[in-house]
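Let us work through a complete example step by step.
Step 1: write down the sequence.
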Amino acid sequence: MSDRSPGGKRVLLAGSTGYVGRYAVAELAARGYRVRALTRSAERLGEAGPFDAPAVRDRCDEVAVAEVTDRSSLAPAVEGVEAVVSSVGISRQRDGLTFDQVDHRANRNLVEASREAGVGKFVYVSLWDPAAVAGLEIVRAHEKVVQALGESGLAHTIVRPSGYFSDMGVLLDMARRGRSFVIGDGSNRMNPIHGADVARVCADAIDSTEPEIGAGGPDVFTQREAAELAFAVLGREPRITEVPIWLCRGLARGIGLLNRQFGDLADFLVTAGQVEAVAPAVGRRRLRAYFEELNAAS
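Step 2: predict the structure and record it as C-alpha cells.
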C-alpha cells in the first residue's frame, strides 16, 4: 500500500480491471484521491487490459479483494470510503453469470453496502438512452440499479456513455482481416467515447450535484463510416458487408441457445446497431487517433 495522497478523499473503484475502471483508477490517482481498487484478482491490476487499457496496480493506494456478487464480502471494501465509483458489468467474462446477476445484483449489493457504511457519494456507469433499447436484459439490469440508487437515499450521479472506443476496436480487427460487417445498412449514428474520457466524467461526478450525465465522444459517425475509418487507418480499400437484421436476430437467438450470457450480449449488440446513440460530446479523444494507436501497438 502506498501513501501517495494522504490528503485526498478515499474512493472505492468497483470494476477496476475493466475497460473504464482501469482508466478511472488512473484518473482518480492523478487527481490526488486515495484509490481503493475492488477486484476479484489483485494480479490482474498489474496486467494491461484489452484495447490499450493500462495496468494500474501502481496507481492504487489499497486493494480490496472481494466478490461483488457476494453481499457479505463487501463490508470491509466500503468501510471508510467517502465515495464509490462503479463500472461493474459483464463485458468479456466467460463465467456463465447473467446480466441480472452482475450488472444488477452485484451493483445492488454495492449500493446496499454503501448505504449501510454511510458513503457520501455513489457514481454509477450505466447506458445512454435506455428507452431506445428498452426490453433488453442488460438494459433492465442497469435500470434496476438506477432505481435502487434512487430509493437508497445515497447522493448519486448516473454516468451514461453512448458507447466505448473499446467496442470500436472490433472494427479495426475486422479491417485487418480484410472485411468488416455492419448490422443492417450501417446508417445508424453514434459518438462513442474513450475510456479515459469516461473516467474524467466519473471523477468530476464525485463532486457534482447532477443526477445524470450523458457522455459521448467529439465525433459522430454512422456505423458504416466508423468501419470505413478503420480501413483508412490501415491504408486499405474498405470491404464492407451489410448483414440483414433478420439474420443478425437469428444468429443472436442461436447464440442464446448455446450460452445465455453471450446470447443476451448479442441481442444487445444487434439492437444497438439499429438505433441512434449520440450523447452530449464531452469526450476529447478522437476515434481516428485511437485506431492509429491500436494499429501502431500491434
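Step 3: interpret the result. The domain at 10-163+193-216+278-284 is CATH 3.40.50.720 (Rossmann fold).
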